[in-house]
């Protein structure tokens, strides 16, 4: 049986699309959006038509007829809370992502674009391993402040896919092993996977700082800054997500550039990069306690895992816990397509989304 799957992954500055015929990538295209284009829109949802039209034009340019598709999958966005795996996109999900997403995030457009294209040719649209996969145990939901329960927002798609790959490399099942996975991209998330469930995470404002995010910062000083009168809410949010981390210290989000600075003996760049690796290692140590130290493998993935300098800095601090596997890249397009292929083959079931 031949399955043609179109995967759509909207990011903050690009929309990626890829076509898979079974396991084979037929094409993958990154449609870049300039800062000037993005700035025209007040809300992420307002970018829907622009991004959808670009996806359709890109398919037309490739001479691809969408009537040949078996399914369309989008990166799952900021719905309140979902299980891991596949969900069929339905009107309830569309309403939530269009009008009331939990957080404004480019991934909210994945399901919307997938649904629109799938409806045109009467096939199903899906999301797979949304950023809001939430498999936290009750004990993990207590934050210390009753008004603010902990929830889960992470790079679940790549993190789960890479843990599954490492399980396979070891001749075992993902559901029989325990992993701590650090996804190291523009944003960083660390997650602990206990026998097939992602039971806790440290990401964004709770986790290590990253190229563009501040991570967990001292709370009291953060409150003071918010009330200093110097910054509005939008600017403060940008300090946490967008203009934090490497960007704030070194004015770049590109780790390769930071490495070049270090080659030129820039001591500040060396210290800040080391601090990022140090915080990731602390996050891995922290989450290892969730499975009482019974970690089968630590997985380092994402674009930054290409950096030998960073993986070495992390590895030296955590390899006493478990073997460290390095799986560079964000692997999201393949993970989306392979997830839906398993659904179409009947190896996994897609859940029905409701609130
Ligand atoms: N070969 C490399 N060496 C070091 N860092 C890299 C390399 N390739 C990509 N990166 C870094 O990875 C980060 C982006 O990771 P990626 O997983 O693609 O994230 P995102 O999808 O969040 O943009 C950037 O900081 C980039 O500089
Ligand atoms: C940590 C939640 C997912 C996320 O922020 O994804 P991006 O880093 O791709 O923006």
From TrEMBL:
It comes from the Bacteria. CDD domains: ASKHA_NBD_BK. It is found in: Cytoplasm. Pfam families: Acetate_kinase (PF00871). SUPFAM superfamilies: Actin-like ATPase domain. GO terms for molecular function: acetate kinase activity; ATP binding; butyrate kinase activity. It catalyses: butanoate + ATP = butanoyl phosphate + ADP. GO terms for cellular component: cytoplasm. GO terms for biological process: acetate metabolic process. Its main location: cytoplasm. Its EC number is 2.7.2.7. InterPro entries: Aliphatic_acid_kin_short-chain (IPR000890), Aliphatic_acid_kinase_CS (IPR023865), ATPase_NBD (IPR043129), Butyrate_kin (IPR011245). Signal peptide: none annotated. Keywords: ATP-binding, Cytoplasm, Kinase, Nucleotide-binding, Transferase. NCBIfam families: butyr_kinase (TIGR02707), PRK03011.1-5 (NF002834). Belongs to the acetokinase family. PANTHER family: ACETATE KINASE (PTHR21060), BUTYRATE KINASE 2-RELATED (PTHR21060:SF3). This is Probable butyrate kinase. It comes from Acetoanaerobium noterae.
